[in-house]
Amino acid sequence: xxxVPSIFNNTPVGADVxxxxxxxxxxxxDQNDFLKLLVTKMSAQDPMNPQADTEFIAQMAQFSSLExxxxxxxxxxMLKSQQEVLTANGLIGRNVxxxxxxxxxxxxxxxxxxxxxGAPEVVVNGKNYSLDSVSLISPFTASV
Length: 144
Fold this sequence. Notes:
- This protein is α+β, with helices and mostly antiparallel strands.
- The protein is 36% helix and 22% strand.
- It has a domain at 29-37 and 66-144: SH3 type barrels.
- Strands 4-3-2-1-5 form a five-stranded antiparallel beta sheet.
- A hairpin with a 5-residue loop joins β1 (95-99) and β2.
- α1 packs antiparallel against α2 (53-90).
- The protein is rod-shaped and about 85 Å long.
């Protein structure tokens, strides 16, 4: 009997595992898992009745597209985060109106930028406010 490699770890299916806690289960499959499944399926198919490879190629193309979409989504999230930091830094020294947690409008100068769980916050009158709470930005005024 030949053993078939498992997609969840490197232990062949049917082989004794010393400690079940050592097995690693994935909640999603990636391109490498798909390739392992493909090789397993192709090695187990009947040579007298082979399956068309166009089906595998189409599935591989879909997997590639999915991987690229996931990568692009992550890149866009990182770009958005960096843009928020740049926007917050651009507000330093500017007078702004922010909406507090009690829905009152507070006006003051942004003195610095802090981060909370990776999200930038402007510091106005010594208190942190999210970038979303900024409702008005006043233009710079020249000092005389």
